[in-house]
Design a protein that fits this description.
Bound molecules: adenosine-5'-diphosphate, thiamine diphosphate, magnesium ion
Number of strands: 10
Strand order of the largest sheet: 1-2-5-3-4
Helix content: 25-40%
Radius of gyration: 18 Å
Distance between the termini: 12 Å
Shape: globular
Structural class: alpha+beta
Strand content: 25-35%
């Protein structure tokens, strides 16, 4: 077991652990860290882009639970060298995301540190939460959008090559309205943050199912992390309805497998705690 899983297992055995967020009494609580040199290097993105993405990766978890983000708690560790202009750029990024998704920042903490580290808690609302545990035998398994480019762009950044400012690595694209609209047909869902193969392993574990793939999924597609696309399962009888809604919202669907008895394990390892 890797250190991440070991730690999570030992910190709590609560039933709330294991999803993109914890559902309690109509609200979903989720948090994600966005740390310099772990999630970004300061040379790669502007401060506004960093702050914006730190919010988006958090909002992604809420959407994957079929919840509407409402409030954010924001902890920021700021390097001493940052000027007031830098701080303004950061606030612009946070505010842009809050405006786009109608979220209020209701608190947080601000400290000084060597690096820029951001931790965000999102409180969101839902009357129909979708968990990773709900996939049923026979369900179709689907992800949205196109996978692979994010990892390629990350590789470019590590080689000091330039990438487009429209890259999903800089600005992930979320599809909340599409997902809220199809939610009543969805049995299980999560977002793709670690890469399709790793996230399928999590889905398999949570729902106690395996997958029968309709076609081979290449490594390029399967190990690209930080895509923030949606991964979900649904009963075959809802396929046409979901496809129609996807068309309306201009969302690409990739129905790539069927849920079956068994389990899915990937040989690829989580990028966290590599050694
Ligand atoms: N330090 C922690 N304390 C308590 N719960 C944690 C901690 N880290 C992760 N978790 C929980 O463990 C589960 C898996 O977390 P994580 O790996 O970040 O999510 P994901 O599966 O989306 O990558 C989530 O439910 C998360 O809330
Ligand atoms: C400097 C740097 N190194 C490596 C990566 C690649 N990377 C960082 S986090 C991550 C996956 C998802 O992050 P995580 O914090 O686990 O999100 P969660 O699954 O908890 O939502 C990847 C592929 C990066 N973005 N930046
Ligand atoms: Mg993780």
């Amino acid at each position: 077991m890797n250190k991440e899983d070991f730690f999570i297992k030992h910190i709590s055995n609560s039933k709330y652990i294991g999803d993109d967020g914890a559902f309690i009494d109509g609200f979903v609580y989720s948090m994600d860290a966005f740390f310099e040199n772990v999630h970004f290097k300061k040379e790669w993105m502007s401060l506004k882009q960093i702050a914006y993405k730190s919010m988006i990766v958090n909002i992604s978890d809420a959407i994957a639970m079929n919840a509407k983000p409402k409030y954010a708690l924001l902890s920021v560790a700021i390097p001493k060298t940052y000027t007031n202009k830098d701080l303004k750029s950061l606030t612009k990024g946070f505010k842009k995301a809050c405006k786009e998704f109608d979220i209020k920042i209701i608190g947080g903490d601000t400290i000084q540190n060597e690096k820029l580290d951001i931790s965000i808690t999102i409180v969101s609302k839902t009357s129909n939460p979708i968990f990773r545990t709900g996939a049923k035998n026979g369900d179709l398994v689907c992800y949205t959008g196109t996978l692979g480019e994010t990892r390629k762009d990350l590789e470019k950044l590590f080689k000091n090559d330039k990438i487009s400012k429209n890259s999903k690595f800089i600005k992930p694209i979320l599809n909340p309205e599409f997902f809220y609209h199809i939610s009543k047909y969805v049995n299980a869902s999560m977002d793709i943050s670690d890469g399709l193969f790793l996230d399928l392993e999590k889905l398999s574990k949570s729902s106690k199912i395996g997958f029968e793939f309709f076609e081979n999924i290449s490594e390029d597609i399967g190990i690209s992390g930080e895509e923030y696309e949606l991964l979900f399962t649904f009963d075959e009888k809802n396929k046409e309805k979901i496809e129609k809604i996807a068309k309306k919202y201009n969302v690409k669907l990739n129905i790539f497998a069927k849920a079956i008895n068994g389990e899915f394990k990937t040989e690829y390892k989580n990028h966290h705690f590599k050694d």
